Structure formats: structure tokens, C-alpha cells
């Protein structure tokens, strides 16, 4: 499971950085989203990858880290997902405003060379 998670984090980060280096704002926004998902997976994996472990204390089980997962990374990722959706919506509004004002969606404000 760790190998699949590492490959997913690497693929999301690589695609996100590649898209952020593109000249159009929509591609930059998608790159930011993918990079955010990669960072969220990385933070989530820091809480320990395990199957059938409880995130909260339950009676009858000893309170050791072998029995439970750390709930802090899960809470951080959940908060980051919500903030990520809000930032994506804000960026899309800025993208549409830029396209309306300038007539193109290039990062540097200059259109395609014809």
C-alpha cells in the first residue's frame, strides 16, 4: 500500500508542477489543484497507513499507537480539502475575469502570436 501511495503522490506532484509551468491560466489552476491533492495525500500518509485501525479511542483496546491511527493528519487534510475547493473557485472567478477584461487566458497577459 505504501508503494501505491508513493507513486500516486509522485504522479500528482509531477503533473501538478508540469501544469503550473504552462502558459495558460486554466492549466496553472489545474496544476495547483493536482499539487494540492499530492500534498494532501502526503500529509494523510504521515498519519500511518494501516487497515482496520481506529482513529478514535474505543473502550477495551489499549491506548497505544499500534491500535490507533493518528487523527490529526486526517483532520488537517479534511480542512485542506475544504480550503482547496474554495481557492479553486476563487481562481476560476479570477480566470474568467481576466479572460473577460483582456480577451485571453495567458499568464503573462499576451495572446498567441499569429
Report on the structure:
The chain is mostly helical. It is built from three helices and no strands. The protein is elongated. The model has no long low-confidence stretch (mean pLDDT 85).
Quick rundown:
The protein is mainly α and 114 residues long. It has 3 helices and no strands.
Quaternary state reads single chain
Shape: elongated
Largest sheet: none
Q: Write down the secondary-structure element order.
A: HHH
Q: What ranges have pLDDT less than 50 throughout 5 or more consecutive residues?
A: none
Task: Report the sheet-strand fraction.
Answer: under 5%
Radius of gyration: 19 Å
* Structural class by secondary-structure content: mainly alpha
The end-to-end span amounts to 49 Å
What is the count of β-strands? 0
Helix percentage range: 55-70%
Number of helices: 3
In round numbers, the mean pLDDT is 85
Amino acid at each position: 500500500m505504501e508503494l501505491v501511495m508513493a507513486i500516486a503522490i509522485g504522479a500528482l506532484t509531477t503533473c501538478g508542477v508540469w501544469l503550473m509551468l504552462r502558459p495558460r491560466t486554466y492549466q496553472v489552476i489545474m496544476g495547483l489543484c493536482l499539487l494540492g491533492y499530492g500534498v494532501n495525500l502526503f500529509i494523510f500518509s504521515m498519519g500511518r497507513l494501516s487497515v482496520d485501525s481506529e482513529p478514535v479511542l474505543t473502550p477495551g483496546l489499549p491506548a497505544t499507537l499500534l491500535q490507533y491511527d493518528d487523527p490529526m493528519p486526517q483532520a488537517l487534510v479534511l480542512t485542506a480539502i475544504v480550503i482547496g475547493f474554495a481557492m479553486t473557485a476563487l481562481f476560476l472567478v479570477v480566470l474568467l475575469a481576466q479572460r473577460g477584461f483582456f480577451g485571453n487566458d495567458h499568464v503573462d497577459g499576451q495572446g498567441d502570436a499569429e
